[in-house]
Amino acid sequence: MNMVLGDALSLLLFRLHSGRLLGINLLKVNEIIPCPALTKMPSRHPHVRGVATLRGSALTVIDLARAIGERGGSDSQEGCLIVTELSRSRQGLHVHSVERIVQCSTRDVRPPPSGAGPRAFITGVTQIDGTIVQILDIEKVLHEIAPAPLEEVGEQLLSPAEQQLLQGRRVLVVDDSQVALQQTLITLRQLDLDCQAVRSAASALEVLHEAQQEGRPVEVLVSDIEMPEMDGYTLVQQIRKDAVLGETYVLLHTSLDSTMNTERARAVGANDVLTKFSRVDLSKALLRAFQRLDD
């Protein structure tokens, strides 16, 4: 399989107690461990099995099967934990078993079927050795259990001059996760930005071209990195080699630790990279973008 920069995707394959096969981006996985002893918290969410202690730090353990609407295991000691770190939090996903790591191309990942519905908890599907693999929308799982706090931005964060700088400026957001998309749009609307949103990189390219043709070009693109068919890195590459769109300011907005992605983001031509999700940090990143555009 020939893969270019930004095109390769490593998936950790695992199974739930029902036998359902799922995959998760390997970059989101810290480690895999046997399920340790858990402390049950009286006020815990029903999809949280308990809290484990991992090297001196508390780790919330989520029953992944229950979180996505299936029956979980009856014994908290069976199975294993996939320890993930994303969107500035760390948690353990309790699953039945882990199978293997596989390589595929983002071009081979398709969006979820249209009939999957809002409770599907998957961001895409692909085939591995003839077997369908569903890719977990872990951001949606975490949001269902602990929604991001609605911290206010605007007057509390920005000076009047900074608010004026952002008012009415044109921003396009692309993210395949409906949860992440809505979180971002709430912040942009609080900042009084003129914003549009799409769910795929291909749609983002279409909107960017249409806006140029209408004489109201998008000034800043806020793009997720992990998306089916064309990821954020490839999207930036497409923009940079486009004679019309080449100077568009691109902020890559990722659930992964941005320190892991900065070098790769710069290599493909992104202007900035930010870890989801902090409304304050996103506001500051957008302010930086428009200050640079106006220099």
List keywords for this structure.
globular; single chain; OB fold (Dihydrolipoamide Acetyltransferase, E2P); disordered N terminus; Two-component system, chemotaxis family, response regulator CheV; 2 domains; alpha/beta; Rossmann fold
Task: Describe this structure as you would to a colleague.
The protein has 295 residues and is α/β, with parallel strands linked by helices. The protein folds into two domains: 8-145, Beta Barrel (OB fold (Dihydrolipoamide Acetyltransferase, E2P)), CATH 2.40.50.180; 160-294, Rossmann fold, CATH 3.40.50. It has helices at 64-67, 138-145, 160-166, 178-190, 201-213, 232-240, 258-268, 279-294; strands at residues 8-15, 21-25, 29-34, 48-54, 57-63, 80-86, 89-95, 97-105, 122-128, 131-136, 170-174, 194-198, 220-223, 249-254, 272-275. It has a five-stranded mixed sheet with strand order 8-1-2-10-9, with no helix packed on it. A five-stranded mixed sheet has the order 3-6-7-5-4. Helix 7 links the parallel strand 14 (249-254) and strand 15. The longest helix has 16 residues, at 279-294. The protein starts with 7 loop residues before the first strand and ends with a helix. The model is unreliable at 1-5 (pLDDT under 50).
